From TrEMBL:
InterPro entries: CTF18-RFC_complex. It is found in: Nucleus. Residues 297-308, 324-338 have a biased composition (Basic and acidic residues). Keywords: Nucleus. This is Uncharacterized protein. GO terms for cellular component: nucleus. It comes from the Eukaryota. PANTHER family: P-LOOP CONTAINING NUCLEOSIDE TRIPHOSPHATE HYDROLASES SUPERFAMILY PROTEIN. The keyword Repressor does not apply. Residues 295-340 are annotated as: Disordered.
Length: 405
């Protein structure tokens, strides 16, 4: 392939020299050039070995604009290279009392952003050839021999993942606000939810309580605890117990709205540190409240045993009263309810609500009871026993005792 390329250059009537051969590949996209290699060339000068391999003179080594612009354009990822420059330039520790280098870097990045945005908006792709020159300006500002290697730009993707996770948390909190009823639905807007509800709600669910246990708690703290439980149950907030890597138990807030008041592992000063005992107490109260709510919801409208039997007895009494009305032509039940005289005598009932009727033989004497018992005596039964040998041949065949010895 190399010989054919040299023959092609020779056929065009040009003198075959090293600069001509190197310039023949200008403008071609280099698939093996990664953005990390381009960033390393932007923030570090060429090594002596690299200069020798490229065959560059001292004067050509100082002309970096064309070389770096060609590398940036050949990478095919100028936006990622610009993102890497923005992420890495602040870590270059070079003495600059007036921060002139950093101000110039901001200007070059701003110019690149404006030019790239206008190019895509107006579809003026002829400006694409000028974009690499704006990034090549980072070389004279931050190039340093022996500096740290540039890593792949990942801050943008990490921030994207954090943004998506926060949006999911806001969506879960908004669903809880809408499900709570009319008292909280007006707080489910995006701006109000992010600026007012989430930060203040974290302060509400982190009360400064100091309880000993569930039974020993001050009356004032019990009122605060009850209000916190009401709010968390209404908004579907829970404390979920988890085990950390070191085996220690902890309670995690679900949805985790505490991420909005925590920055680099530090919390706001006006938010009390939520202790394990306090979260355990709140979680226990929430579970008890949910159990009571589910029990009330399940038993609501369901008749009990006593109501069932009383309903049957009442229907039978109403039918009897309808068949035998009183003197005034109204059923007895209506007349008894209408007159305000002496209240009716309570009738003793059993476990199922049925009235207990006294037995008829309660007034009989002992001699009469003995006579009735003797009269109820019946003749003795005749007991008979019949042995069934069965149909098996092993049973019917006679066997001598000597066979078992």
């Amino acid at each position: 392939m190399v010989s054919r390329g040299v023959q092609l250059i020779k056929a065009r009537g040009k003198e075959v020299t090293e600069p001509v051969v190197r310039a023949a590949t200008a403008g071609m996209k280099e698939a093996d050039t990664s953005q990390t290699a381009v960033l390393n060339d932007l923030f570090a000068p060429l090594s002596r070995k690299r200069v020798k391999d490229l065959g560059l003179t001292e004067d050509e080594e100082g002309r970096y604009v064309a070389r770096l612009s060609r590398e940036i354009e050949a990478s095919g990822a100028m936006d990622k290279v610009a993102q890497g420059c923005f992420e890495h330039y602040a870590s270059c520790h070079r003495h600059d009392a007036n921060f002139g280098r950093y101000l110039k870097a901001h200007e070059w990045l701003g110019a690149y952003d404006v030019l790239a945005g206008e190019m895509r908006a107006e579809r003026e792709y002829a400006l694409l050839a000028y974009l690499p020159h704006l990034l090549a300006a980072f070389f004279p500002l931050f190039q340093e021999r022996g500096g740290g290697r540039v890593e792949r730009a990942k801050a943008d993707y990490e921030n994207y993942l954090v943004t998506r996770a926060n949006e999911e948390i806001y969506a879960a909190l908004a669903r809880g606000l809408r499900a709570a009823g009319g008292g909280y639905r007006h707080l489910a807007g995006d701006a109000v939810l992010r600026l007012e509800v989430a930060p203040l709600l974290m302060r509400i669910v982190s009360p400064p309580l100091k309880p000993v246990n569930r039974q020993i708690i001050r009356p004032g703290e019990r009122a605060v605890l009850g209000r916190v439980v009401d709010i968390m149950v209404a908004l579907e907030l829970r404390f979920v117990q988890e085990k950390m890597e070191d085996g220690q138990l902890t309670y995690r807030l679900d949805p985790p709205i505490d991420v909005f008041v925590t920055y680099d592992g530090k919390r706001a000063a006006d938010i009390a540190v939520s202790k394990y005992a306090v979260r355990q107490l709140v979680a226990t109260e929430i579970d008890a409240r949910l159990v009571s709510v589910q029990t009330e919801t399940g038993d609501k409208g369901r008749p009990g045993k006593e109501g069932f039997f009383r309903q049957g007895a009442g229907s039978r009494g109403a039918k009897a009263a309808a068949k035998h009305p009183g003197e005034d032509g109204e059923p007895q039940a209506k007349r008894a309810r209408g007159d305000g005289g002496v209240p009716a005598v309570k009738v003793a009932v059993d476990f199922f609500g049925r009235p207990i009727v006294p037995k008829a033989d309660a007034d009989k004497t002992s001699q009469e009871k003995v006579k009735e018992a003797e009269a109820r005596k019946t003749a003795a039964y005749r007991v008979a026993y019949r042995f069934n040998e069965g149909n098996s041949a092993a049973v019917r065949k006679p066997v001598k005792v000597a066979a078992f010895v």
